[in-house]
Design goal:
By secondary structure, the chain is α+β, with helices and mostly antiparallel strands. The protein is built from ten helices and 38 strands. The strands form ten sheets. It has an eight-stranded mixed sheet. It has an eight-stranded mixed sheet with strand order 27-28-26-25-32-36-35-34. The chain has a five-stranded antiparallel sheet with strand order 22-21-20-23-24. α5 (289-303) crosses α7 (332-344) and α6 (321-327) crosses α7 (332-344). The termini are far apart.
Length: 639
């Protein structure tokens, strides 16, 4: 034990000496930054030194020293740092110093500049977390701000990751990471995305060190992946930890799930006998277990609303079902637990499911490396043939429906026996469908009258169903956006139907469009696709550096009968337009039903996926081609 203490003391002395020497030697003159780091950059990280010392299962010390030179006003956000704390995590030091463009010290920020505010997110009733940050106004650009932060926490389950580049359009001179395990407990680590990056790394006894230098700004390319998918990432996870005073241990997802269930979930299903009786009466005449789940899910939706309450361990532990029942509100964990309790009352098993919610990117729980992940909770209900998924924080969405926030990704199902990696609902392109059925008439003056029925399903339901809950004024604005390609649009009538049983949102609309067809003497021209035309503003990029992702595939179909003015005929036959690409397919046909009626069919299928950067310009061509085909016109001649 004496030998260990000496080693810890020596390590501390060396760290302090190294940090002091480094700061004194650092020159913050903006002119010294290499040109390749400032080109197209809003800011440059001069250095970023992150040190983690895992001292015991219930103590971790983190020091972070970094300096950022902000080059222009657009990069001002990179100068601010927000440090959170709570009753178990203490900010030991928080210092900041400003320097001018030449690197001359302007001033040290004082306690009067330090703001201390609640971490309320706008959806929370109570939050225990608070945030400190320095508030200041720079006199000119460029300028540099240098931070030194030290925190000490007894919550050791969450350890900071090392990601050397934290945002797009920021250059980095130097980023380093040191992790020291001063305890007798095992630490696990994972390294990602080290290929193509010159990461220096070393391991000496119980310490690991990483560094990366001179990283030019990463351009935020359209449809680009997240930075943590292309940047080096290092993750350390303790085998032994403490969370809000509760000790735990795990090395794999099964162990973690078991700890989570035993310590945070068990015995939280405490509905009153009176409510259990009410629940049983709702489904007493229903034999189909899926229909039982649907009825009870609607009962939960009608009774509750989402409000976050996080005090102490409340960020990880759900409130009991009885609390939600009495208050009629809760966060994702509490509402999921309440829904499970409702199902449990009628003998249906369901399981808490930890997931990383993100509508813009499918973020997986790392199935191969167990550490605290996820930001959301849903539940899964296994059946004989499939799995029912329930999002309990949304009181408006459909039954057994996960939208873009949680679709098609790995998640962790927590059972009494332990954790199990599962995959959530996948929505292929033929399921993510918008079907437009319509009839229209072109008047002799070129105006269009039309009646439409639009059915959105799959992830396209996620894009539209909220419209049904908007005010009439908002709904009209939405419809104007949807049909903005129609000139001189007038919305005569509309109605919405939200089929929450099958996740289909139906729009019925009666529209008029002035001067839809263009009249030239005795002839007129008109677009074959009056609405829902594909447009493309994408530009080719010959210097693209990273892959691109089509977030979800989809199918758009139009079946439309169009009556043309009496005495007009098409000047020539319309040949089907067919286009096939690796990104999708397109078909447009026109059939003459009778001299005054045309039938138009159009089908577009776009495939999801991650594609190499070399194919980006091909994708731009695909979108342009689709847009061109959607703008196909016909000429009508007057007899």
């Amino acid at each position: 034990m004496l030998k260990l203490n000496r080693m810890k003391t020596l390590t501390t002395i060396l760290m302090v000496f190294t940090l002091s020497f480094f700061v004194k030697a650092q020159n913050f003159n903006a002119d010294l930054i290499p040109e390749e780091l400032t080109k197209d950059a809003y800011a440059v990280v001069r250095f970023d030194k992150l040190n983690i010392n895992y001292e015991n299962y219930n103590k971790v010390t983190v020091t972070n020293e970094f300096a950022v030179t902000v080059l222009k006003e657009a990069g001002l956000k990179y100068a601010y740092h927000f440090e959170s704390y709570d009753k178990k995590s203490k900010i030991d030091k928080f210092e900041a110093t400003l320097y001018d463009a030449s690197g001359k010290k302007i001033r040290e920020l004082k306690s009067k500049d330090l703001k201390d505010v609640s971490a309320a997110d706008g959806f929370s009733m109570y939050l225990d977390d608070r945030v400190k940050y320095y508030e200041f106004t720079p006199a000119s650009y460029p300028f540099t701000i240098h931070y030194y932060i030290k925190t000490i926490s007894s919550n050791t389950l969450f350890l900071p990751k090392w990601i050397p580049v934290g945002d797009y359009d920021v250059g980095v001179e130097s980023s380093s990471f040191a992790f020291t395990n001063s305890s007798s407990y095992q630490i696990r680590k994972k390294e990602k995305n080290f290929d193509h990056w010159n990461v220096e790394r070393s391991e000496i006894s119980n310490s690991w060190n990483y560094s990366l230098k001179n990283i030019p700004p990463v351009k935020d390319e359209i449809l680009s992946p997240y930075l943590n998918e292309i940047m080096p990432v290092v993750i350390f996870a303790p085998t032994e930890f403490e969370l809000e005073g509760r000790k735990g241990r795990f090395e794999n997802w099964k162990d973690f799930g078991k700890w989570y269930y035993d310590n945070l979930l068990q015995d939280k299903q405490d509905l009153s006998e009176q409510e259990k009786q009410t629940i049983r009466q709702l489904v007493e005449d229903v034999s189909d277990p899926v229909e039982k789940v649907r009825i009870l899910y609607q009962y939960m939706q009608n009774k509750t609303r989402y409000i976050n309450i996080s005090i102490g361990i409340g960020g990880w532990e759900p409130y009991p079902a009885s609390y939600v029942s009495n208050k009629s509100y809760g966060d994702c964990k509490a509402l999921s637990n309440y829904m499970m309790s409702i199902l449990q009352a009628v003998g249906i098993d369901a399981f808490h499911t930890i997931i990383s919610g993100n509508p813009y990117k499918k973020v997986d729980i790392d199935k191969d490396f167990a550490y605290m992940q996820g930001n959301h909770m849903i539940i899964n209900v296994p059946t004989e043939t499939d799995t029912i998924w329930l999002e309990c924080t949304n009181q408006q969405t459909a039954f057994n429906y996960l939208g873009k926030f949680t679709d098609d990704r790995f998640a962790l199902s927590v059972t009494p026996e332990g954790g199990k990696i599962v995959r959530t609902q996948n929505y292929p392109p033929d399921v993510n469908k918008e079907l437009i059925l319509g009839k229209g008439e072109i008047l002799p003056n070129g105006n269009l009258k039309t009646n439409l029925i639009i059915k959105d399903s799959g992830l396209q339901y996620d894009l539209t169903y909220r419209t049904g809950f908007e005010s009439s004024q908002e709904q009209k604005r939405t419809l104007n956006d949807w049909f903005s390609v129609l000139p001189n649009l007038s919305i005569k009538n509309y109605e919405f139907e939200n089929d929450r049983k099958n996740a289909v949102f139906i729009t019925k609309a009666e529209l008029e469009s002035g001067q839809f067809a263009k009249i030239f003497g005795n002839n007129m021209t008109l677009n074959l696709i009056p609405f829902s035309r594909s447009e493309s503003g994408l530009k080719k990029d010959n210097s693209r550096k990273y892959p691109f992702e089509i977030r979800f595939g989809y199918t758009d179909e139009v079946e439309y009968e169009l009556k043309i003015p009496k005495g007009y005929v098409m000047n020539q036959a319309f040949e089907p337009l067919i286009y096939v690409s690796e990104f999708g397919n397109y078909l447009l046909t026109l059939e003459v039903l009778n001299p005054e009626t045309l039938k138009i069919n159009r089908k577009l299928l776009v495939k999801d996926g991650v594609y190499p950067k070399e194919k980006f310009n091909d994708y731009v061509e695909f979108r342009r081609k689709i847009s061109s085909l959607d703008n196909s016109k016909i000429l009508l001649e007057k007899l």
